[in-house]
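Box 3.1 A note on notation
Throughout this textbook, protein chains are presented in two layers. The first layer is the amino acid sequence; the second is a token string describing backbone geometry. Keep the layers aligned when reading.
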Amino acid sequence: MTAVQDVHNFRLVGGDVNVLRVGAFKAGAEVAYADKGDSAGFGGSVKAGYTLFGGALTAGGTYTRLGRGFTNPSNVALRPGTSDLSLRGGLKLGATELRAEHSHQEFQVQGVDRQRSRVGLVQTLAGNFEMDAAVTNDQVSGALAGASGSSEATAAEFKTKWGPTPRLQLWTEARRHLSLAGPALFPDVWGVGAGYKLTDLLSLEASQRFVSRPDSQGEYSLSSLGLRANMGQGGQAWGSYQLSGGISGAGNAAVLGLRNQLQLRPDLAASVMFERRMGVSAASLTDPVRALPFVQAEDDYWSAGLGLEFLPKHSPYRLSARGEYKDGTLQSTRLVSMAGDVAFDASLALLSRQEFTQNARPGAPLSRRLTSIWGLALRPARTDKLNMLAKVQWTNDHNPIGGGVLVSQGAERKAIGAAEVIWTPIPKLELGTRYAVRHTEADRLYTDGTPQTVTSWAEYTGGHVNYDVNRWLSVRGDARVLVEQTTSTQTWDGAPALAFRPVNGLEFATGYRFGNLSDPDFSVRGGHGAFVTLSAALTEKLFPTAAEFWRRRF
């Protein structure tokens, strides 16, 4: 089975595990693996907490680390190459609580190191009124600190929160410098806000902040208005509007969205998504408008998506389709995909997937890809231990993202024929082998304008083995060889690995990949060397038909 590049595909797999709970002490861990385009990375965190005297004394900490290749579009605050250590403690005496916090964050990609310490006193009064007074110390070094190389600020903070009714909540906040050394990365700010629960499903929030800076930014304000609605049946709508500095519109920002999942019929489901975003452009990269100190380009875009799934029960066929459209200032994408399969009987099935993608970025040529894949799944009539797949794939690339087989810019066409066999002689052992032939044709244009059509033939052979030592541990390995017939060159790689399954459905794998194979169709993403992956483990190993066996592998 060949690996197909897809500039739009994003895979995020994660898990949250309570590792230990003994009396007042508890510990847990979170892990995630993200794969997007040419980047893939691992992220994880561990956390622990301890309470005494019925919750009067608390202490805890969290450590988080994200690899350089880890990305999560749904949470831009999770920046690649980040490590974060947070410690906290509290002592509660009646309605009074003393809190202490310390955090140390390192952002490798941005070249920024930040430390923050806070000691405060929280007092709860009658009528759901709470006051929080504290002294904070913030230290930043690296790229954001300018020529001085570091910045340190000690400030006083005061916050209040009042819930006069169960539906209404009011708050205020203020921050004032006590001492400052270096650039003013943390400005003085004071603000007010309110949140009102219109209904059980609809909430309205509004805030007004006033910012004062000693540098050329001077004084400005930030107004925000937001609305969020839970629509039921899997649907949610949200929106917010921000105005920075005035009414000219130069610093306006808005995020509007709609997401809904509908079960139209027992065998037909639909999903709809819409989002509109306009970023804050006038404010400094280090003011409260942004999440300090995450430096990133703000993309203005709107996007929409529609998906359909036709899954009739007790029928030999199924069909799914989806479309996505995104129009932005930094990137615009299009995606149309259709997939389906038909099981003629338990031993024979036809599978298919068709896909079109387009990617446009400023300063880069327009990239397009059209792919058509067809597969014929086979298995002997009297056993499910042997499963076979014959597959053909046709791809038409124009300026392929990440480069193609023969050209990085221009047109490239590929035809791949492949055969794969997976044998499970005993439940604990799986053996697999794959053979493929690829013909590539590309249009190359030399600097003097002379066109040339270049071709390539390649043969690929690969195999893998997996043995389950027990329900928690597996030993596995794979090997690949690619022979380029046109140039008589040969590349290869191999990877022994261990796989751990601490809980059902979640798997960690670690190993080392040797060799020099690098190919858009036949090599794995992530390159060579040591690797750690996290994925959803397939615990169900009984597949009544050949179509069900190959559906997730196709």
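Residues 1-8, 246-250, 280-296 have pLDDT under 50 and may be disordered. DSSP finds one helix and 29 strands in the chain.
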